[in-house]
Amino acid sequence: MAKIVRYWAHDPVGNIENMLQSFDKEQLQKGEEAGIVFVAEYDDGTRSIVKAVDVVEPQTFSNDEDITLVLPSYVDERTSATVACFDALAEIVNPSVATVSADDAEAEVDPIKVFMAAIEKLRALKTGGDA
Q1: Which of 18, 25, 39, 123 is deepest in the core (most CB within 10 A)?
Q2: Distance between CA atoms of residues 23 and 63, nearest Å
Q3: Is the whole-model pTM more than 0.85?
């Protein structure tokens, strides 16, 4: 079952929302009466509208939960793979103007193949590198 990790206060008139910081029941009720919509966000990324009376401060961490730390190399590897995908896509969308001699024609690289290879590398990081 998904667990609530935070609440949002959404103002439909101004079309803005902010993360809820105060859980005073009286203030929440006044906000709801003024038209504020409260949204619960769950640990699986889903969200749902809730009544002010149901809003309680979420318990985000307990002592028995693990916290995963991300090393800079993890971020660097994924950033490099993402940039390579965009570079390859840019070459498809706006190819460099270059003259290719008959001898160099065989050495010419298909930009779509380069992009597909880059996106596969990025996908492999997503599916296989999360551990």
Answers
A1: 39
A2: 23
A3: no
**Structural tokens at position 100:** 């290719």
Point out which residues pair with 16 in neighbouring strands: 11
Q: List Cα–Cα distances, 39 to 45, 88, 94, 107, in angstroms.
A: 12, 40, 43, 56
Span 82-126, pLDDT tens digits: 998 888 888 888 877 444 455 555 557 788 888 898 888 888 887
Look-up: residue for tokens 């079952």? 1
Beta bridge partners of 6: 41
- Structure tokens given for 55: 């809003």
- Copy the structure tokens of residue 31: 């906000």
Task: Kindly tell me the sign of the dihedral angle through the C-alpha atoms of 27, 29, 31, 34.
Answer: negative
